[in-house]
């Protein structure tokens, strides 16, 4: 092996790669979780599956799929780069999967549009945004097929460039703590918008915010009737610039008989109800469920099997993340407990006490896989602020007079707000306040896995004129 080559072993795949061919070891988790999800999806079918990988680079993902996912009849492994195509061919033979994998040298969009309604699973894992490939993928996938997509352009999806976000994804971002979930919902909105143009809809199975990217798994199904419901699953988001309160504005509502639709009434005020600061508007986003609970629970059961621990190198992290996702409320977006506490200048309330206070009032609360300090709840915002205000006033060193010199601030306005609750907050520990994944000590949130960790450098090799 020359100095220009490298040997890689991942899962059951053994690869020989030129160093110029793009490979990112940090993405092993992406490939592991994808194998688990596609395997779980395949269990729902009574047939072998045909997979298309549009942007293969090394062929590693496809080779792992061929060797590690049961009942795969064919994988079309595509890349536009000739060197990558050659690498794919060589490693397919090296791994003895040439009876399953067909290497393809083509533009991903062309390859998909030449094979409409052909593939059971389409996997698109680009460097950057998946959007240039979405329309072709929606047309190419079979009815009921599984679409797996990655987006790594988090500087766009995360709130820094709202004009670029709108141009790419059809929605503007907001600089809120919920930016990681909003990124997921912007991607899902783009997928849903594309699908409805072809009388199709998406059904999210699992949507993951991972490291420096987002990864979503959605079923694409033909349903001209359900495309009409798309406006009811689409919302604008109003975010308070002061206290970080947010509220959703659905674009449409459906009548009970589901035969007529109407515009929803505007529910977004120009100023925040609690702190009197202006609201900023973002979106639209996909505001329906981003996880399918049945799929997630079945996936979690599979990961709990002892064989999964031996099968996946990143099993601990997979088990932890899917466990947290299984506990998540399907409630759009989330709040950050540290940020809310900081708004009223009090030390962060212990999670167990905060959760108990909401649960004791009859509401639900959960963590989110998107953020270690985030929480989801169906409780109204006035109760959340009432709980935090009550907590602050119970602290011996808390001095509400600190706000007196301020002419106006979110914290001052909230602490002076007249909440309608008559009874005191019950902070007594609730049995559901501590989630199962935390009790079991699972790896719920991953630290940066390596130094200088990230998406890696984009390949810079240019095609020759005749390529």
Automatic annotation (TrEMBL):
Q: Which GO terms describe its molecular function?
A: RNA folding chaperone; tRNA (guanine(26)-N2)-dimethyltransferase activity; tRNA (guanine(26)-N2/guanine(27)-N2)-dimethyltransferase activity; tRNA binding
Q: Which controlled-vocabulary keywords does the entry list?
A: Methyltransferase, RNA-binding, S-adenosyl-L-methionine, Transferase, tRNA processing, tRNA-binding
Output the SUPFAM superfamilies linked to this UniProt entry: S-adenosyl-L-methionine-dependent methyltransferases
GO BP: tRNA N2-guanine methylation
Q: Give any Gene Ontology cellular component.
A: nuclear inner membrane
State its Enzyme Commission number(s): 2.1.1.216
* InterPro entries found in the cross-reference section: SAM-dependent_MTases_sf, Trm1, tRNA_met_Trm1_C
Q: A Pfam family in this protein?
A: TRM
Catalytic activity, reaction form: guanosine(26) in tRNA + 2 S-adenosyl-L-methionine = N(2)-dimethylguanosine(26) in tRNA + 2 S-adenosyl-L-homocysteine + 2 H(+)
Q: Transferase: is it a keyword of this entry? A: yes
Region labeled Disordered — which residues? 446-467
The family note in this entry says: Belongs to the class I-like SAM-binding methyltransferase superfamily. Trm1 family.
What is the protein name stated in its UniProt record?
tRNA (guanine(26)-N(2))-dimethyltransferase
Species source reads Rozella allomycis (strain CSF55)
